[in-house]
Specification:
Blueprint: H1 2-9, H2 12-23, E1 28-29, H3 31-38, H4 42-55, E2 58-60, E3 66-68, H5 75-82, H6 90-97, E4 102-108, E5 122-127, H7 131-145, E6 151-155, H8 156-164, H9 168-175, E7 179-183
Parallel strand pairs: 5-6
Antiparallel strand pairs: 1-3, 2-3, 4-5, 4-7
Length: 187
């Protein structure tokens, strides 16, 4: 999806920067923050910020940072197009975590299903989990989505224990809307 949107909007980098501002409407960012969080080079970031400011999507704050212009006339239309549920597909999330260890449960919620009330965006449960691989892929997803993800990584035994004692966090994630991309716990 990022490739298609990139072609429509001129580049995938522009889509990443737009998502960052759309999903963080109450935050202001320096150009360096935008580059870092979007995983876009400083030169490209500068060009994209200039273009988005000219379009009226973002504006400069008194402190010199950039923020989303809440008066932009096409907010909802743009959000529906750029931040849709299809923007990060399930098979892409699965592909990213296939080398992260023996995954028993992979749940996506929150930003992945357009539900801002979710306690977590990703719940990953398994054995011999490779934290560096998981962390790297989480950072890449955050850059593509444009929002910091709320996630939890648990070993299988800890997850089973927390489920058995009716841990509030676990039940909040599993009792509310979510999608199970992998579920090898019930088999």
């Amino acid at each position: 999806m990022l490739v298609i949107l990139g072609k429509l909007f001129g580049s995938a980098d522009r889509v990443k920067v737009i998502r960052l501002f759309l999903l963080n409407q109450n935050a202001a960012f320096s150009a360096a923050d935008v580059a870092s969080r979007s995983k876009v080079s400083a030169a490209v970031t500068k060009k994209e910020i200039k273009s988005l400011a000219e379009s009226g999507l973002i504006k400069k704050t008194r402190s010199g940072e950039w923020e989303f212009n809440t008066q932009f006339p096409l907010i909802e239309s743009l959000k529906n197009l750029v931040v849709s549920a299809e923007s990060i597909r399930s098979d892409d999330v699965l592909r990213r975590f296939k080398n992260a260890g023996r995954i028993k449960l992979l749940v996506v919620a929150g930003v992945f299903i357009q539900n801002e009330d979710s306690r977590a965006d990703i719940l990953l449960v398994g054995d011999n989990l490779k934290r560096p691989v998981i962390d790297r892929n989480i950072r890449q997803l955050e850059a593509e989505i444009g929002k910091e993800l709320r996630y939890s990584i648990l070993e299988t035994e800890e997850f089973k224990y927390r489920t058995s004692v009716y841990d509030k966090f676990i039940h909040d994630v599993l009792d509310f809307p979510h999608v199970r991309l992998i579920d090898r716990l019930t088999q």
